[in-house]
TrEMBL record:
Pathway: Amino-acid biosynthesis; L-arginine biosynthesis [regulation]. Residues 80-146 form the Arginine repressor C-terminal domain. InterPro entries: Arg_repress (IPR001669), Arg_repress_C (IPR020899), Arg_repress_C_sf (IPR036251), Arg_repress_DNA-bd (IPR020900), WH-like_DNA-bd_sf (IPR036388), WH_DNA-bd_sf (IPR036390). Keywords: Amino-acid biosynthesis, Arginine biosynthesis, Cytoplasm, DNA-binding, Repressor, Transcription, Transcription regulation. The lineage of its organism: Bacteria, Bacillati, Bacillota, Bacilli, Lactobacillales. It is found in: Cytoplasm. The keyword Nucleotide-binding does not apply. One of its GO terms (cellular component) is cytoplasm. It comes from Agrilactobacillus composti DSM 18527 = JCM 14202. Belongs to the ArgR family. GO terms for biological process: L-arginine biosynthetic process; protein complex oligomerization; regulation of arginine biosynthetic process. This is Arginine repressor. Pfam families: Arg_repressor, Arg_repressor_C. The gene is argR.
Length: 150
């Protein structure tokens, strides 16, 4: 697992779990079959600029920085304007082609947008495979993504 994939998974874990310690990240990643050390997680936390915020049952938990959560739509728009090559649709599926190296970050931003039409997405180096919940929702999502470029 490379750094971008690991950090994408860490963001997902933050959304799904109340993570209080670095060891919790290590345990959850190991449970999912990704062998990582506490030192690796510590470097990722620093690189991702994660912050600790009050937890619902006392204590503190890890969270994404507030400014990153609020500006996802702007970041996605800038990234798409910079790296967009093409966007095609077939049924409920979308295929987004980007410049080399851009797809992992754009894929993460698409996921962070929490589009209601989105069932799931996965990105490699220069392309993103997007699955919508229906054909109509794929068309709606395609329009939203294209509007971010214009």
């Amino acid at each position: 697992m490379n750094r971008a994939e690991r950090q994408h998974l860490i963001k997902q874990l933050i959304r799904e779990h109340e993570i209080r310690r670095q060891q919790d990240f290590v345990r959850l990643l190991n449970e999912q079959g990704y062998a990582v050390t506490q030192a690796t997680v510590s470097r990722d936390i620093k690189a991702m600029e994660l912050v600790k915020v009050p937890a619902t049952h006392g204590g503190y938990r890890y969270s994404l920085p507030v400014e990153r959560q609020m500006n996802v739509d702007k970041k996605l728009g800038y990234a798409l304007k910079d790296a967009f090559v093409s966007l095609t649709r077939q049924g409920e599926l979308l295929f987004l082609k980007t410049s080399p190296g851009s797809a992992p970050a754009i894929s993460t931003l698409i996921y962070q947008m929490h589009f209601s039409e989105l069932f799931g997405n996965i990105g490699d180096d220069d392309s993103i495979f997007i699955v919508s919940k229906s054909e109509a929702e794929a068309e709606s999502l395609q329009k939203k993504l294209l509007n971010l470029i214009n």
